[in-house]
Amino acid sequence: MTRILVVEDDADVATALRTLLTRAGYEVLAAADGRAGLRRLFADDPDLMVLDVGLPTLDGWQVLERTRDLTDLPVLLLTARGAESDRVRGLRAGADDYLPKPFGNDELLARIEALLRRAGPARWAGAAQDEALRLVPERRSAVWRGAEVRLSDIEYRLLQVLVRNRGRVVTTDQLLDQVWDDPQGIGRDRVKFAVLRVRRKLQQAAGGPDTDPIEAVRGLGYRYRGDGAGDA
């Protein structure tokens, strides 16, 4: 059954969407804020996302940006804003279609059907990173030097950010912002301990400390080298 993730904070609208889509034969996954929406995206691998712009914790623009970092999943934006500038912003940010509120049920279903027809299976970014490491987003794991490493959601996102910036230092503050949604830098020790966990898992998978691809840059942050050399 085709699964649609609905990220909508208005309870009445969310209930109406669930009823409409369920009657149309879709399985509906629901989230009431941006962070919950991303968690469901990571965990449940939907076929399409219906995304409201005006969300708490993370707004729809932020959710869309992070979604596009990971996958080409079809995204239909819903918003009360009907201005052309917002429609253009949504499409430029990677949305596949845009429907202002209020909308007709038949139009919504027609747009969803059109997006699903055009889309193949969603492709997650980072399937092949380099010769030594491959990220496997659908299982939240990494294959490092031929050995699969199971990671938590935080550990996976942390490694993905580092790999995406291969060869460049990613500061602790940048990691807090991109991985933990903590741009104020509260709880900086979380980064250190999460990096230690990832490095330990990679070392154990590949057989020793000399196989660590993450380098700690004292006073700045961390860098993914990919060559098996790192320091603690």
Automatic annotation (TrEMBL):
Annotated positions of the 4-aspartylphosphate modification: D52
Residue ranges constituting the OmpR/PhoB-type domain according to the UniProt record: 124-226
Domain Response regulatory stretches: 3-116
One Pfam family of this chain: Trans_reg_C
UniProt keyword Translocase present: no
Alphabetically ordered keywords of this record: DNA-binding, Phosphoprotein, Transcription, Transcription regulation, Two-component regulatory system
Highest taxon in the source lineage: Bacteria
DNA-binding region coordinates: 124-226
Name listed for the protein in its UniProt record: Response regulator transcription factor
Lineage, highest ranks first: Bacteria, Bacillati, Actinomycetota, Actinomycetes, Kitasatosporales
